[in-house]
């Protein structure tokens, strides 16, 4: 095992790097642009949009960069079982290997087991660039295990970014330790700044050896969260804020949360939908609290984007997730499987692989820029959504019938903008319930004008056309951004010629006019 010794315990270099990143606290969550691959900062930021030191922090972090999530992987190590608050949307006792939900793990690890797993994953998946601790409880309610794990990983794999996710209750007490540990990214879950709303989300917290409930608990929690965010920002540590959108409880209030976290230097805001299926056994799941629709979630994200940049590519990962966002390879790296592996961690091999990834990203950006140039000069008020079946790498490379989710992009004469993903049931099940599954898929993307696929069968193609959604397969295995702009340019030409009539889509609208060609 060629484990290379890098950062030592609470290395001074980490503090020096933190000081170099002080401009991060000054961006105040700046807004994004909708042009391809460019933004002023945040998840869509390109290399020219950020100070060099910040760009180095985000360029290959799949959670902090929407571009990077197509190419780079992350892993979470489950070393932190205890938690110091209770959330009405959380139940850490339930585990299904096929589900993706925060707080869920199949096995808990010691710090020593975690570093062995990290090296095994990094050697097997050279595009794995980030190690995070996100539970299954709260990392800062388990400080010894958490920081011991980070220390061991920093020594053994100095090229891997360290990432921490916390509810923020204990955060102010550990900001200095976080900075000394070389942790470059911290995610804080902040669901409210109004204690009366917080009391509906959190039954209790445990703080300073005492249990608090109701409004008192929520007031302590929000004060500590905002204090910790401010302290991290002042040290130049990049902070992402996660918020769970809970209809009729905090949905409208999250606009105020957005303003509050921006003013304290948050780099990115990730508004996630409540997961409230009753089988998970959460309070909200059992009392019938619904989650938001995809359209409600997008509307709230759009409303907040005027204040700061939004993360829209989150997959609400398990606390032991491994792989690209949207996939989970944790079953390949159980403790038993890792023991069997002959691990050779080689920095040069990893760097060479990631250099090839960067070449691929550059080619994608160049192709997209060229296609966007062909759109220049066209004027239109039309903007619309399209769905894309993809396995990753920014390509249209998934069969319609095999898609577990669709990525959704907004198209306009400014280019493409990623707006979210829609999970669906896999259509191809050997003829079993395929009609019902297709109806569910169509309902899930009924606000989209087209769906881009690598391949699609005749039956789903004809049914999509009847539903007013154009199946597009002529761009199979090509870049998403480039292909979407090319199709949109053609769409505008068809509207201008009268071949089709553009109608806004949604729950109650369909496309009108001549039949759509299923090219």
Fold and architecture overview:
The chain is an alpha/beta fold. It has 2 domains: 12-339, Aldolase class I (TIM Barrel); 376-513, 2-Layer Sandwich (Nucleotidyltransferase, domain 5), CATH 3.30.420. It is 34% helix and 16% strand. It is built from 15 helices and 17 strands. The chain has helices at 12-20, 52-58, 111-124, 143-156, 171-180, 195-198, 214-234, 254-263, 283-286, 294-305, 335-340, 347-375, 434-444, 458-466, 480-497; strands spanning 73-76, 85-86, 128-133, 161-166, 185-189, 204-207, 210-213, 238-245, 268-273, 322-324, 384-388, 405-412, 415-423, 448-452, 470-472, 500-501, 512-513. Strands 9-8-5-4-3-1-10 form a 7-stranded mixed sheet. Strand 12 and strand 13 form a beta hairpin. Helix 3 runs parallel beside helix 4 (143-156) and helix 5 runs parallel beside helix 7 (214-234). The protein is globular, with a radius of gyration of 23 Å. The N and C termini lie far apart (52 Å).
Number of helices: 15
Total discrete domains: 2
CATH topology category name of the largest domain = TIM Barrel
Mean pLDDT: 82
Give me the side-by-side strand order of the main sheet: 9-8-5-4-3-1-10
> What top-tier CATH class of the largest domain fits best?
Alpha Beta
Task: Categorize the overall geometry.
Answer: globular
Q: What distance separates the N and C termini?
A: 52 Å
> Rg, please?
23 Å
Helix content: 25-40%
Fraction in beta strands: 15-25%
Write out key terms for the chains shown:
519 residues, alpha/beta, TIM Barrel, 2 domains, seven-stranded mixed sheet, five-stranded mixed sheet, 15 helices, 17 strands, 34% helix, globular, disordered N terminus
